[in-house]
Amino acid sequence: MKQLRSLLFLFGCAILVCSCATTKTLDIWKDEQHTDTLKKTLIIAVARQDHIRNQFENVLTNHLTDRGVLASPAHKALPQLNKDTDPDTARSLVKKSGFANVLILRSIDKSEVTNRQAKGKGYSTTSTGWHSYYTRSHMRVKRSYDTEFFTLDASIYQIGETDPFWSYLSRVRVEDSRQMAVNEFVPVLVEQLADSDLLPR
Question: The CATH number of the domain where 117 resides is what?
Answer without folding.
Answer: 3.40.50
